[in-house]
Design a protein that fits this description.
5 strands; globular; five-stranded mixed beta sheet
Length: about 90
């Protein structure tokens, strides 16, 4: 079974209650947005953290990407709030 590691940061991690988890890699052609929407349907902290994708950013194999990107053969997907510097 091919797996995908999901890594959560900041308030996303707080809401879900996990730093990371491993899931079966989604079917070919599935996008990050598809996966995030499916995860939000788990309810609870997942719904709280993931139901509004406009509040999130993603990195696929440690590279910033839009939610429209296909997951493909990636090994890691990180989800986090927008980051600002100062």
């Amino acid at each position: 079974m091919a797996t995908l590691t999901l890594v959560y940061f900041a308030w996303v991690r707080e809401a879900i209650g996990l730093d990371e988890e491993r899931i079966e890699r989604p079917a070919p052609g599935k996008t990050i947005g598809d996966l995030v929407a499916a995860l939000a349907l788990r309810g609870g902290g997942y719904a709280e953290a993931l139901s509004d994708a406009s509040r999130l950013r993603a990195a696929l194999d440690q590279r910033f990407v839009p939610f429209s990107d296909v997951i493909g053969e990636a090994r890691e997907l990180a989800l986090f709030p927008p980051v600002t510097g100062g």
